[in-house]
Design brief:
This protein is mainly β and 199 residues long. The protein folds into 2 domains: 7-75, no CATH class; 80-198, Sandwich (Jelly Rolls), CATH 2.60.120.1110. 0% of the residues lie in helices and 45% in strands. A hairpin with a 2-residue loop joins strand 1 and strand 2 (7-9).
């Protein structure tokens, strides 16, 4: 048994914890969920966040976590994803249901590479009712897209700077949402849509 001052340091599984440079105890915690008599560490997560990594036999949960009213979600940083891959389209399309975990706003990027005749496509953001799953229009681009080029839409509470933007709005982003690309006619237009959450 090793001693430092009046603190007794006992061996743990044959390993003696060492003191660090500040004379504080540096302790390693070991666990083995498969040994008789061990108690499992409870993890109350659901869905994609039901992550319990095993490190040296110890179950670990990513932190920090945010409570969503029922379960716990991992806190996210600014994330980017593709809502619509580049393709020629002639009719209105809706994105898959999106889940916003902790962002306040959103950037939408529309890249149009080809048009035929006179298409008119308008991005519309819909909030999704958590009870009925019905959608309600939250924001609509002020001008329909009819030509090739890049567009940037920034939706963020308190946003007042319109420089370099195609459009902006101060709407907050709900937890559940969808983006529709509403086509005014059946003329072909080739575009992709990307997005980035803003914390």
């Amino acid at each position: 048994m090793a001693r430092h001052s009046t603190v007794s340091i006992e061996e743990i599984a044959g390993v003696v914890p060492q003191l660090d440079d500040t004379d504080k105890l540096a302790v390693s915690l070991y666990g083995n969920g498969g040994a008789a008599g061990d108690t499992s560490i409870p993890v109350s997560l659901a869905g994609a966040d039901a992550v319990a990594n095993t490190v040296d036999g110890m179950r670990t949960v990513p932190m920090p976590m945010l409570f969503n009213g029922t379960t716990w979600d991992r806190q996210r940083g600014n994330q980017e994803m593709t809502l619509f891959a580049s393709a020629a389209r002639t009719a209105t399309v809706a994105s898959a249901l999106q889940t916003n975990y902790n962002a306040r706003g959103l950037m939408i990027f529309v890249d149009v590479t080809a048009v035929t005749d006179t298409p008119a496509v308008t991005p519309i953001l819909y909030a999704v009712d958590p009870v009925s799953a019905d959608v309600q229009s939250l924001w609509q681009a002020s001008t329909a897209i009819a030509t090739t080029g890049n567009r940037l839409y920034v939706l963020y509470p308190g946003n007042t700077d319109g420089a370099q933007l195609t459009d902006k709005d101060t709407v907050p982003l709900p937890r559940s949402w969808k983006l529709y690309m509403s086509h005014g006619d059946a003329d072909s237009i080739t575009y992709s849509v990307g997005m980035s959450y803003i914390l």
